[in-house]
Structure formats: structure tokens, C-alpha cells
Amino acid sequence: MLNFVLLNYFLFYFHRKEVGYKVSKGDNFTLSISKAEVDLTPEMIQSGSWKTKTFKEYNFDALGVPPAAGHLHPLLKVRAQYRQIFLEMGFTEMPTQNFVESCFWNFDSLFQPQQHPARDAHDTFFISEPRVAKDFPMDYLYRVKQIHSEGGHGSQGYKVDWKIEEAEKNILRTHTTANSARMLYRLAQQKEFKPVKYFSIDRVFRNENVDDTHLAEFHQIEGSVADYGLTLGDLMGIIQEFFKKLGITKLRFKPAYNPYTEPSMEIFSYHEGLKKWVEIGNSGIFRPEMLLPMGLPENVSVIAWGLSLERPTMIKYKIDDIRTLIGPKVNLQMVYDNPICILDN
Ligand code: PHE
Asked: What are phi and psi of 288, to 5 degrees?
């Protein structure tokens, strides 16, 4: 140990270097400190003082101030992912920019009876101004009236009076299936039927009591495929393919009821965390009572499914109260801090 200390001492001693500095006044030597100018001002130009001033050099390596805006909300990030999946599968996005819809497109065209409880003010927001819509394709409206009140195409209909006054009422749309109805009607007006795949992801409104899992407005993800002779097998297959792209493979279907689809199926997936089957969507084959009055060929079927955007977003971002996801209780820091959405597929 002593040897080691001595060795170090000798090494330091014999390798010592001496460094000296000589300091003298340079050309710019001054006893007053002047600050270099940062900005060239109009006054300097007017007085000509800029000629004698020294200016600070630009620092092109300085980092900019991060902008305070420009963060995407988690719902928008998850929406982008779902959109990508639909586009990969060859679907076309439907126009859904109308939040206000008539009862005709939201309910009647979908063969939802005028006495259906969902049309009640407890479930639907009615618009007071403009209270009613007027621009309907009248020949189609008449065929809708016919199928509701008298039946046709082998269906009995509802055998109740169908009133245009009910159909004209403006509401906030309760589902984007209203947009699917508009698009399928438009498709039926084309000279020659061509198979289509449509999707949309947009906002819908329901007059619900708000709690930690319900809001009076939320987003629906909706897909539909129209082609000759599609079956329940096609519907289950395409839903399986869609959810596989989200990393969800354990699916179950449960018979359900929708006024506009037959058969109808709720979609369940096995949640590994909760160790149980949870409902993730609704689906079905649109009824002939909806499609034939539109004018679609008899052998064309349309399969469709829908799910909410909020539920997968809450799972993905571990948010347990929907009111902290949208609405006045949203914490903006949550929006800034959350990473982009990459669904585990
Ligand atoms: N419109 C349904 C809903 O609001 C979802 C759905 C879409 C069901 C298409 C069947 C077919 O829940």
C-alpha cells in the first residue's frame, strides 16, 4: 500500500507541467460594458445609429419554444386507428357531418315503428328550430309508409297508421345507421348495382342520464357491406377479420333484436383482465323491409355492425369515468400527456 502511494507521488512530481499566460489589452478593450443589439429597430434605421452598433449573431442551434397547442385527444387517436383498419379492408368513408337528422332517416327508413319507445323524448333530443324537415324523396317516402302500415314484399308490416308528421320531426341523430340508410338509398338509385363497403366514425346523441359509463353524446363506429347473397357467415367472418386487426380474437355472438336487422347479434369478446365476456358491439343483416323500398335488387343483402368509440378508448387509456374523457371535466394535461394510440395487434 505504502509503495503504491509513493509511486503515485513520484509519477506526479516528475511529470509536472508549468503553464503561463500573458494578458494584454486588445483592440476592443473598453471599461464600459455594452450589450450587443438583438433587434434592428425603425429608429436605428432613421437615425443611422445602426451603422455603429454591434449586433448579436443569430444562433441557429437554439431550440424553439414548444407550441402550447396541437395535441390530439385520445378519442381522435383511437379514431385514426379504426379508420386505418377500415381503409386497409377496402371500406369507403360515409359523409356524416349532419348531427341534425329527420326521424324519417333516423327511424322510418330503418323500419323502426313510429310507436317504438326509442322515439320517445326520454331517449331522443328533438329540435325546436327548425322543428321539421321537408326535403324527402316522396316516392320513396310513400313506399316506406306502405311497408310500415300495410306491409309488402311478403312482410305484414306493423299494421298501424303511419304519419308523415312523425317522420318530419328533426332530432339529433341517435345513431349513424341513419347515415347508412341515406347512403344505401343513394346506392339503390344508381342505374346498376355495384357492391360497396361503407364505414363511419362520428358522434351520436341520446337523451340519457349521465353517469360514469354513459354520456348524452358519444361516438359510433359503423361498418356495412352490400353485395349479392351475403349471409350470416359473411357477417361473422368480416366481424372476426375486423376485430382480429384490433388484436381481439376470442369472439362470441348472441342473438339480439334490432328493428332494422334480422337476424341480429350482439358481439362479445373475452376480456383477459376482467376474466369475463364483455359486450363490444351490435350487428345484423338489414331487413328486406328496409332495403326493398329503397329499390335495392332482391338478391342483394347488406350486413352491418356498430360499436362505440368511447369503450375501447377507455380500455386503451385506462380511463374509468367517461366524463373525464369528454365534456367539461376533461383534464387537458391528460390530453397533452397521452401517447399516440397503437392498438396491440
Ligand atoms: N345502430 C345500432 C346501435 O345504435 C348499431 C348497429 C349498426 C346494429 C348496424 C346493427 C347494424 O346500437
From this structure: -60, -30
* Residue 23 to residue 211: CA distance in whole angstroms: 77
- pLDDT tens digits, residue range 193-210? 999 999 999 999 999 888
Averaged pLDDT for residues 291-320: 91
- CB of 176 within 8 A of CB of 306? yes
In a domain, 122, yes or no: no
d(CA 339, CA 126): 38
134: which residues sit within 8 A by CB, 6+ positions away?
168
Please give the Cα distance from 19 to 44 (Å, whole number): 46
C-beta atoms surrounding 121 within 10 Å: 9
Ligand 1: nearest atom to the Cα of 264: 10
Q: What DSSP state is assigned to residue 15?
A: T
Domain-located, residue 134: no
The whole domain housing 214 covers 74-98+176-337
Number of domains in the chain: 1
Evaluate if residue 2 carries a pLDDT over 70. no
Query: pLDDT band for position 338 (50/70/90)?
Result: confident
Residues in CB range of 145: below 8 A, 6 or more apart: 162, 164
The answer to whether position 110 is within a domain reads no
Q: Is residue 76 pLDDT above 80, yes or no?
A: yes
Closest CA to 202 of 303, 122, 329, 101: 101
Q: Is the pLDDT of residue 265 over 90?
A: yes
Ligand 1 site, residue 174, Cβ cutoff 6 A = no
Neighbours of 303 (CB within 10 A): 24
Question: Ligand 1 centre from 136 Cα, in Å?
Answer: 23
161 within domain boundaries: no
The CATH number covering residue 288 comes to: 3.30.930.10
CA 220 to ligand 1: nearest atom: 4
User: What's the predicted TM-score (pTM) here?
Assistant: 0.79
Give me the pLDDT at residue 273, please: 72
Summarised one tens digit per residue, pLDDT across range 202-245 is 999 999 888 887 889 999 999 999 999 999 999 999 999 998 88
How many CA atoms are closer than 13 Å to the CA of 6, on its beta-carbon side? 3
- Centre of ligand 1 to C-alpha 177, Å, is 6
